[in-house]
Amino acid sequence: MLQTAPNIPYLKAAWAAFAGISGANAKQSYEAAGLSFTRINHSTLVRKNEVQVSTMPVHYTRHELRVGFLGRIENEVRKAVAEMDAVFYGELCLPEGHHLVIELEECLRMLRRRGNRTLSILVEPDGSAPLAACMRVEMRVFLDAPRACLFAHGADATTQGWVDLLEDAPKRARTPRADRYAELARLISITLNDAFASFPRTQLAA
Asked: Who contacts 173 (Cβ-Cβ below 8 Å, separation ≥6)?
């Protein structure tokens, strides 16, 4: 089955809609939150700034509306992760003895419970054998738009503890932004591949 791309305009609008009636805005009116409603037969279409963000029954609670937003957001997040994972598989050169860990289920659990909007993707030792050089990477990916913050550190016999592999990287490399999640993954792959290659005793996997 073909995986469709995430709907970026929807993600931005749905997160804005969710924020407008949650947390400090939990008692804000729908009008103040920028939400509009259209009843069609036995359903209610919910829009945020002309973008349809949910379809609800005729009668619903504010809590049910929030849950509805998060359910659709979760579907789009899964699409974004699949899109990024496919790019990493083909373009990210993992150091020998390391693997990629996408903390998707923990991310979705926190999304459902708290409306969390970040996903951690890690590169870390896989534990298969002792390593001359170790890497620890966190890609903190935001789920409201294709953007991220990167943290990468390495250690070997020549270092005293962990060193920042992105110390000399420009801000746009540490905090990349893109129009699509696939493009974001490509930008991240370029930055990390350069960082891995520059670390003295790293042996890149074939």
From this structure: 150, 166, 187, 191
For tokens 């962990």, the residue is 162
**CA-to-CA distance for 149 and 14, rounded, in angstroms?**
22
d(CA 55, CA 200) in angstroms, rounded, equals: 55
Residue range 90-135, pLDDT digits in tens = 999 999 889 999 999 999 999 988 889 999 999 999 888 778 788 9
**Per-residue pLDDT at 133:** 83
Looking at residue 1, its pLDDT comes to 40
Where are any strands of DSSP class E within 77-189? Answer: 98-102, 118-125, 133-142, 147-156, 163-164
Burial class (CB in 10 A: 0-12, 13-18, 19+), 30: middle
> What are the extents of the domains in the chain?
8-76, 83-198
Q: Which residue stretches of 43-169 are H helix? A: 62-91, 104-114
Question: What's the rounded Cα separation, in Å, for the pair 111 and 32?
Answer: 24
Compute the average pLDDT of residues 11-20. 94
194 sits in which H/E element:
helix 181-198
Q: How far apart (Å, rounded) are the C-alpha atoms in residues 184 and 20?
A: 27
Task: Give the per-residue pLDDT at 31.
Answer: 94
Place of tokens 């503890």: 161
